[in-house]
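Justification of computing resources. Each target in the renewal requires a structure prediction run like the one illustrated here; the chain below, 88 residues long, is used simply to show the kind of job we budget for.
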Amino acid sequence: MNANALVARNIRRLRVGCSLSQEALAVDAEIDRTYVSRLERGLENPSVAVLERLASALEATIPDLFLVPPKGEPPPKPLRGGRRPTKR
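Resulting structure tokens:
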């Protein structure tokens, strides 16, 4: 797995693990939501500064973004879509 795909997978894994939407992560990391989407699809090469902001927003470290998954581990599942029910 190349470094770009590794970072993409780990950003999504950490984001889903924190139950954050792409938009919430983007706000916390002070980057554009579409950039988060492109990062998770491996279409962008983030700078060290962006990796630092993402790691901070995900309460992780930069090395966490480069962890190699165990062999055979499936990709992270997406978050449940749609609006959350409101309490009345």
